Amino acid sequence: MLFSYNWLKKHVPDLPEPEKLEDGIIFHAFEVEGLAKAEGDWTLDIKVLPDRAHDCLCHLGIAREAAAIFDLPLTKPIWEEVKPGDLEPLLIRIEDEKACRRYVGRRVNNVAVFESPDWLKKSLAVIGQRSINSVVDIANYVMFDLGQPLHAFDADKVEGGIKARFAKPGEKIITLDGDEVALDESIFIIADDVGPLAIAGIKGGQKAGVTKETKKLILEAANFDPVLIRKIASKIKLKTDASKRFENELARETASEAMKMFSAMLKELVGGEYGEVVDVYPAERQLSPIKIKPEFISQRLGITIPEGEIKKIFSRLGLDVKEEDDGWLVAPPFWRLDLTEEVNLVEEIGRIFGYEGIKPEILPPLSAKAYRAEHFEQQFLVANLVRRALFKSGFTEVYGYAFTDHGEVKVENPLAADKAFLRANLIDWLGTKLKENLIHVIFDDEPVKIFEIGTVFPQDGWEEMRLAIGLGYRKKIKGTEPPKELEMAVASVAEAIGWSGNLPRVTESASADGLHQLVEFNFEKMVDMAGPVSALPEKEMLNQDASYRPVSPYPRIIRDVAVWVPADMGAEQVGEIIIEAAGELLLDKPILFDEFKKEGRKSLAFRLVLQSYEKTLSDGEANKVAEGVIGALEKADFEVRK
Description:
By secondary structure, this protein is α+β, with helices and mostly antiparallel strands. 32% of the residues lie in helices and 24% in strands.
C-alpha cells in the first residue's frame, strides 16, 4: 500500500527523513518495497502483512509504528464532537449480529456537495486515489487515516430506516461503478425499507449515491465479520479498499472514532445540521490483559533487558502495564488485535529493542525430544547410505506431500480440503504412486521400484522420520516374486548401514494378488542402529556427467520391429542403426525385448518409444519413423520379420 510521507508527518512531526524512515520500518516492522518522490512529497510503498493489516493499513497505524521505533511523540488530531441538533434520529436495525458487529450512523441535513479543495485532492492523489466529491473524498481520507471504511448515503433517496441484513432471493443492486450484481441469501447488504442500498463492507449502490445535488446525508461507520466479507467479495469478484480492510478484521472501537472524525471534517468542509449519533453495538468486545513476567521475556530472547526498558517499549507501543505480586498485567490498546498471549509481547519487545542487539547468540533450552548436532549429521550420512544401496538395487527416490486428506493430526487452517491433515505414514501415498506408475510401464515384466525418506506426524505430536520402500508389477509374470525382491532390497539397506539384524518395521502391506509389496521403517531407529558412518566420497555421491531434459507433455507411441541378423552379431550394432534412422522422435535407446537363434542366425526384437516435445504424434507420423527404420535395416542387408 502507498503511504504519504507528509501525511505521516502530521501524526509524527519529528519523523526522520524518508530514507531513514524506510530503514527503520524495514528493520523493525515491515518491508518497504519502494520509495519515490511525489509533488512536494514522498510515497512509501509498504508491504503490510496480514497479521498487522487490522491496524496498519492506514497512516495512523504506520505513524504509531514509526513513533514507537524511533521513540518519538505521536500526535493524534483531536476532533471535537459535532453536537447534534433536533433532527429525527436515524433508525438502524441489525438483523444478524454475527455478520454485523456494530453499526454507527447519523443524519446530516443542509449540506453542500462540491469539488474538494486542492489539499484534499492532493492528499488522495499522492496515494493513488482519484477525487470524487467533497463528501466521498472526506470518507476516503478518514479511511486512509484511521483504517475504518465509511460510507454516506443520499438521505432523500433512502426510504425508511437502515437495515443490515442478508439479501433476499432475486434482489439485485447496481453498484456505484454501474455494475449490476445479482444477490442471494449468502450476501450481506445494507438496505432501506424497500431494497438494497449497498453490499455491506464492499461497495455502495447507485440508488442512494451522493451527487452534487445531494442536500441530506446518512453517514455510516460499521464493523462486519471478516470471513463473511472475504467470502462475499470472492463470490461476486469485487475487491475494494473497504473489503480489504474488513476482511482482515478491524477493531470494533474504530467505528466510533471514525464517525467522530468524519462528522468533524464534514462540518468544517460542507457545513450542515447534524443528528444524534446512533450506535447499535450488540456485543461489546471485552479486552483482556495479558499476564507476563519480565524474566519470561528475557528467557525467550536470550538476553536480560532491564525492566525499565521493557516498560518503556510497552509504553511506546501504547500498552499499559500494571504491576502485581506475581508479574505484570499488560493491556494492549484496542487496535492491536494480534496481541493475545505472552509470546506476542516477547516479539514486540524483541523487534523494537532490535534483534541485532541480542548478543551473544544463545539457543533456547532444548526440549526432551531435541537431538544434538551429531545426530543430524549421522542421520544425513545414513540417509545417503540408504539411497546408494537402493539406487544400486534399481529403486528411484520420490518425494510426497506432508499434507494429505486423512491422518491423525488435523491442520487448523488447511490450504484445501484434500490437504487438511498431516500425513501419519509414508506407505499410503507410496502405494498410490506405485499403482499410478505401473500404468505407464512399457513391458508387463518391468517393475516399478520406488522409495521415500520423509517426515510423518503421528498423533503423539512428535515429528518422525520414516523410510518406505515399494515394489510392484502390472501383471503376474512367471519368475517374479515381489516379496523376495523387496526383502533383498531391505537386506542391502541393512548391510549398507552396518546392521546384521532386522530393521525396525513400522508397517507393511501386500496386494491380494501378490503384485505389490510395500514396507515402512522407523528411520530414526535405523540411524541409532547404524555403525560408525563416515562421509561418502564425493565421486560416489555425485554424477559429474549427469544431464537431464524435461518430460514431454505429449503422449508416446510404441512401435516394434524384429529383424534376422547373423548369429554372431550383437544387439548394440543393430541398435545403432535404429537410433540413426529413427531420429529425434526416438525417446531413448531401442529396447531389446526378445532374442532367439534358429538355423544359424539370430532374431532380435526391439521396441521403439516415440514421443514429440512439440505436439501429439499421429499414427501416420509414427509409421513413417518405423518405415524409415525398416528401410535402414534392409539397406544393411538384414531381413526384417513381418
